[in-house]
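Now read the record:
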Amino acid sequence: MNSNIKSSAEESTRVGAFESFKSWNYTYFWLASLLSITSFFMLMIARGWLVFDMTGSASMVGYVSAVAQTPSLVLSVFGGVIADRFDRKKVLLLNEGINFIILLILAILVVTDVVEVWHLMLLGLINGITFSLAFPARAAIVPSLVPPRNIANAVALSSIMFSGAQLIGPPIAGWLILVSPATAFFAASGFVGVGIPLFMLLKVRKNNGGYSAADSSVLENIKEGVKYISNNRLVLGLMVLGFFVVVFGLPYQTFLPVFAEDILKVGPAGLGYLAGAGGIGAIAGSLLIAAYNTVNQMKAFLVAGAIGLGVFIIGFSLSVSFALSLALSLAAGLFFQLVMTGNFSLIQVLVPDQLRGRVLSVRFIVFGMTPGGILAVGIAAEEIGTAYATAATGMICLAGVILCLLVFPSLYRKQNIIE
């Protein structure tokens, strides 16, 4: 077993839930990322509403979202190489600058009333490309901002940041859509603009693994990451489990505008509340792992989250009550975050710094497969309705998770150190 892995596992014992916030360096990163990810959720909600308002088609909402997420399927692995070769702070700043410009252009297109669906697809594709190339650096930089013993805590707190963005972004977007969609896009660009100076304040600890990915070719870099994953059953199991969760457990979020408008009849404000309820649940899930972050505790939350997610997606899909849907959205957000934060935290603890970007990039390729589930739901929604199509994904998610747990018992087996 790699000594770096063992050291990280032993040092990532349980610490206080907010231990990492004692570092101003990490706090700057957390706040800047909160603003950036909030803008992402605002964009997702406002763009989905705009597409549905323009076309009246649930499948078109899925197509536009899929175009934006497809680059992750191909480019994330190169983003991992970038994260291990170059200054991760500079990679983040470049991505934030491009994101700011894209949001501003989108807002101008909407406010001048010249926006078309192909504009949304093109800008979404560009945004997806930059996101795919930079997100491994955003994730891989976290362990360089805190002491080794705080890695799991810092990752969990970063998940709270993501959940917090999911909580506040959609309601803000929903309220601003009532003014105009352009207002939501302008506000999203403003969030990114405020976060950029905070990213500039970061002081990143250098790679402590004594190895630079630039010492070999890009192809060799990629092979090293893949080899590490294939040789570690726990990491491989986490990847496979993540596949079922994001491909079949995540698409329901994309179709919240359809549920809000056609099924629950609650309009854009209700859409914001539905997404916000999921954010509340997600924050609760992240807080649990931030407070209980030993390896075995994270495994327990991972398994519970994976099983519970499919169950609550099925319930949400079939609900016709707004109050019940809010409760189910909250529960789905909680269980989704338990499995994803537990998954992500375990990988961060497992992987040595010099390989972290590349291994994380493979994990993000799994996220890049999300459009497959989204497109499937969109197509099926035209035939059998959005509710039944989404319920089917919940059933597939649950079946896939159970199969994964049977094939990879290391996902739930108790252990003293990381394998």
Q: What stands out?
A: DSSP finds 18 helices and no strands in the chain. The domain at 3-205+218-411 is CATH 1.20.1250.20 (Growth Hormone; Chain: A;). Confidence is low (pLDDT under 50) at residues 1-12. The chain has one domain: 3-205+218-411.
